């Protein structure tokens, strides 16, 4: 489970990096004449990040409910 979370965080950070790259390019065409500008690439990268973050949250929640992972950390005050 630890490796799944690490891979998920890397994918989320990578998606943010791709969105930044497309934002910095400003939706310019690839340089070929007649090619359409890449307007939706940044939105797709950010949508992937949001979707992947929600999926990661659901996987961690289901894993906790199924007993596959246990909470650790500070004990609750009682």
Give short descriptive properties of this protein.
78 residues; mainly alpha; 64% helix; single chain; 0% strand
Q: Main beta sheet, described? A: none
Count of helical regions: 2
Oligomer class: single chain
Span of the ends, CA to CA? 30 Å
Q: What is the SS-derived class?
A: mainly alpha
Query: How many strands?
Result: 0
Mean pLDDT: 82
From the spread of the alpha carbons, the general shape counts as elongated
Uncertain residue segments: none
* Proportion of helical residues: 55-70%
Strand content: under 5%
Whole-number radius of gyration?
A: 19 Å
Order of helices and strands: HH
What does this structure look like?
The protein has 78 residues and is mainly alpha-helical. Helix content is 64%, strand content 0%. It has two helices and no strands. Helix 1 (2-25) runs antiparallel to helix 2 (41-66). The longest helix has 26 residues, at 41-66. The model has no long low-confidence stretch (mean pLDDT 82).
């Amino acid at each position: 489970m630890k490796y799944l979370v690490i891979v998920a965080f890397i994918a989320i950070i990578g998606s943010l990096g791709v969105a930044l790259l497309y934002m910095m390019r400003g939706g310019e065409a690839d340089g070929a004449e007649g090619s359409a500008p890449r307007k939706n690439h940044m939105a797709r990268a950010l949508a992937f990040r949001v979707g992947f973050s929600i999926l990661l949250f659901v996987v961690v929640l289901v894993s906790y409910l199924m007993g596959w992972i246990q909470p650790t950390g500070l004990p609750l005050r009682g």
